[in-house]
Write a structure and sequence with these properties.
single chain, 173 residues, alpha+beta, 6-stranded antiparallel beta sheet
């Protein structure tokens, strides 16, 4: 997780302390699972990890997921999302964000094919109205999603880091 993403998690959770997750909850493990699933779309979301606030702080869980899409994104996003200029499509809302990027890599079983990878970050709780600055929350979720996406692209050794910038781009598309 980048330093920017760590600061973003504080915006989301109100805490700078986090508990531990399962030993297997890593980008490296998620990348291994993605490679095994490729080229079939996953049809669902698989965990990269869950981020928990530490004991003694307000209880917040953030779920980070990965998925394989069957192609470039299509359709119009829901109105609560802001479209950002990262990867194939980045969507940010006040309680979640996703980054889809294209990856061509020798790690994939057919390196001539492109994997369309979706990384999602969402507040794992009963849906409710977001509290606080909605724009700051959107930026925070997008920053965390970008950080995990870039880590996944690097772990997979995607050409040109899957087209992801080194730092998150938070300006609307």
């Amino acid at each position: 997780m980048s330093a920017q993403a760590s600061k973003a998690l504080k915006v989301i959770t109100g805490s700078s302390r986090f508990g531990t997750t399962a030993e297997k909850s890593t980008v490296a493990r998620a990348a291994t699972n993605l490679v095994a699933a490729f080229p079939a779309p996953t049809g669902g979301r698989d965990d990269v990890c869950r981020i928990y606030t530490a004991d003694g702080t307000p209880d917040v869980t953030i779920r980070v997921t990965w998925g394989l899409a069957d192609g470039p994104p299509t359709g119009t996003p829901a109105p609560d999302f802001t479209l950002l200029k990262m990867g194939e499509r980045t969507l940010a809302a006040a309680n979640r964000a996703s980054v889809q990027f294209a990856c061509r890599s020798a790690r994939l079983s057919d390196s001539s094919r492109v994997a369309h990878i979706v990384i999602g970050v969402e507040h794992w709780d009963v849906p409710k109205e977001p509290e606080g600055d909605v724009e700051a929350l959107k930026d925070a979720y997008a920053t965390v999603a970008h950080s995990v996406s870039l880590a996944m692209a690097k772990e997979l050794r995607c050409e040109k880091d899957g087209g992801l910038p080194a730092r998150p781009v938070l300006d609307p598309a």
